[in-house]
Write a structure and sequence with these properties.
12% strand, homodimer, 13 strands, Aspartate Aminotransferase, domain 1
């Protein structure tokens, strides 16, 4: 089968790739390492170190507290940049703030408080842990029912399962646009419409979607969303998260963590909390400026590429992983554990193998291919169209095949570690 | 009066200052600018730019996701460093995480949930806005009573006022160890003892205390605390905050934001939230690593100086401000608006003047002295013993006197701005 898709064809795809030049906009020191974990932590944009150094030396070191009139707008300014370049949202609908978990808590709590007598929360049973945990806490504290929607580990949530669970007792539905494990991509407009029919609000987790697939928050009728900026957006490790609240909803919602950054006329320091008009009311405390700063050079590259082109290339990179898995890896016990239809798949592809944990370790240490493991038996491969070449995917799959032929993972430890 | 304390005496104090050499451990590009706002944003440690650049290029750029096994411990590791060098707490009692506002919310909510039928929260009426706002939100959501303790704008909260308000209905008392406006320093051990007598829990806000005065959380019997790291700790703009939960309390408390970083065996990604043992249960989401990283070089300097020596110098710097205000500025309508007893004052000194806003602006733009304004009529001067010299204080007061003699602020705009 090796000759079915020879390496030179991957090289030709790279030669024709309209995004090929953008790879130089990232730091790629070690050309032999194949990095397929852009869905966990995106690469370092080449402009970022100097940008941060300038901020640290000038903005902090020289200007000191006099920089705050600029910095104080960053949560909002970066939110507007994200809205325009990655989220299909309008100005004044997105802020960058806190972590995804904290933002999920704020928006879920706000939505539940505004939900009248409705007492049910729906969540994908296979959704990312923090989403489920945050909702468990909120449901328990308020005596609400948290219903886990049955979800297929490979194919993700089916719309008919959601429809069957939607009734007029549902206050809130929390779903990932792209599933963290399978990469299954939901039809956001269809979900929003189905929820709207019964008067429920959908809160989207966009962590694995933003920067990988077009997210059209306004056009899809989305009301609430959160997401992180350190995966396909390349904002750096633990970069602050974002939240989106549709303009029409903002004045009706009040979030639970009433911090001074969400206060109207913050520096009047008035006696009573009075939420700021607009999306600023969803801010809380002083934001980590160094981590925020790294978003600007990252968004510059994203804006130049455009999400549509990123998606077009991402589909093809995913197709290549699926085709080479079928051709090369099936005999070795691998199976594609993501939707096979590229329209139903986000930026990453999961492979099933009973030894996935050992394999992901052997792949990194012996074959210099960084993907990652997800419970219970999934190997995730997350090419990032801004810097992953077709030939990188070809080589990674070739190295994986080589490992498989030698069952090279057999002596690798298989115990779970605290970080996998 | 000018001759009562001539400038050469300030120079002599600097010559005898055991911390004098540490000034070189900070970036001080513009020697003519006198920076007395270390209580808002501490200066840039000289080692920080290279430290961050290495983290960015190597930790992120080269090692990528493979750095996470190191990074994932940082919230706890940095918490332990803070515990040892600045907080008088034991290992495993402090984590660095989120913002002060979010941490205050988490710990206040956890304490209220564990408070049985008690229905009253006490807070200093003059405490920092975010503290009051967060508590208003919690009280409102739970139908509790939030009582504002009367507090003197200059002298801070009096212990007898607190004692009078403490009864067995009090669940939680939130107080700043050092008041953000007046600089008034509370006797933490006395407050903790008084609260313990009626079975109430005290949650300390240490933002203006940590790194300025010795904080002995264990010895003073403190149970809960939060604080920021960007003032006297020099962690950088918006650097992540810390929280402290006394070891004996940890297993009894459960915080409301159930994120995956607070989960036992985080990467098993289990179905149900099961809080981690110990202080880790108060973590929430993925932390901003770039902002966390800046804490290490900052804590290196702090550890070398030692808080006791910082406090000793800080007292004397404060005494100099008080003495020169009395001598030079009283005729021009200034008044010391902080406790005059240095044992009852933290690291900064507030001056009262009806034109404080205009004066703080004139001071920065015309005299190159950066202090800050706080409502309604306070000019805050915050020397930082690690890098502020006695002669800096002398020169700043001299420049302020010069402005006052000319009433140089009369044509400066006096409208509040969004950032002051």
């Amino acid at each position: 089968m090796r000759d079915d898709f020879p390496r030179y064809l991957a090289k030709e795809l790279d030669a024709a790739d309209p995004l090929a030049d953008l790879r130089d906009r990232f730091v790629i020191g070690d050309d032999d390492l194949i990095y397929l974990d852009g869905n966990s932590l995106g690469r370092l944009p080449a402009a970022t170190p100097a940008h941060l150094d300038r901020l640290v030396r000038q903005g902090w070191g020289d200007q000191l507290v006099r920089s705050w009139p600029t910095w104080i707008e960053w949560g909002r300014r970066l939110g507007d940049r994200l809205a325009a370049h990655a989220l299909g949202a309008r100005p004044g609908e997105v802020v960058v703030s806190d972590s995804t978990s904290v933002n999920l808590y704020k928006l879920a709590a706000a939505a539940l408080d505004a939900a009248g007598g409705r007492r049910t929360i729906l969540v994908d049973a296979e959704d990312f842990p923090t989403d489920r945990y945050v909702l468990q806490g909120l449901a328990q504290a308020r005596g609400l029912t948290l219903r886990m929607l049955p979800s297929d580990l490979d194919e993700g949530l089916r719309l008919h399962e959601l429809r069957a669970a939607l009734d007029t007792d549902v206050a809130l539905v929390v779903l990932s646009a792209v599933s963290y494990r399978s990469g299954a991509l939901l039809d956001m407009a269809a979900v929003n419409a189905a929820a709207r029919e019964v008067g429920a609000v959908v809160l989207w987790d966009l962590c694995h979607a933003v920067g990988a697939v077009p997210v059209e928050l306004e056009a899809s009728g989305a009301e609430l969303a959160v997401g992180c900026t350190y995966k396909y957006l390349n904002g750096g490790p633990g970069a602050p998260a974002f939240l989106y609240v549709r303009r029409e909803l903002q004045s009706r919602l009040r979030q639970p963590i009433q911090g001074w950054f969400g206060q109207r006329d913050q520096f009047l320091m008035g006696a009573d909390y009075d939420p700021a008009p607009g999306v600023d009311r969803f801010l809380v405390g002083t934001p980590p400026i160094l981590s925020l700063a790294a978003l600007d050079p990252a968004l510059d590259v994203l804006a130049e590429a455009g999400v549509a082109r990123i998606r077009a290339k991402g589909r093809r990179l995913g197709e290549l992983i699926v085709a080479l898995t079928d051709a090369w890896l099936t005999p070795h016990g691998f199976r594609v554990a993501s939707p096979r239809d590229p329209d139903r798949r986000g930026g990453h592809v999961s492979l099933h193998h009973p030894e996935a944990l050992r394999i992901s370790r052997a792949l990194a240490t012996q074959a210099r291919v960084v993907g990652d493991y997800r419970t219970p038996d999934r190997l995730r491969l997350g090419p990032a169209p801004l810097y992953t070449r077709y030939v990188d995917v070809w080589d990674a799959m070739d190295r994986l095949r080589d490992l498989a032929e030698r069952r090279a993972w057999e002596h690798v430890p298989g115990e779970p570690s605290r970080v996998t």
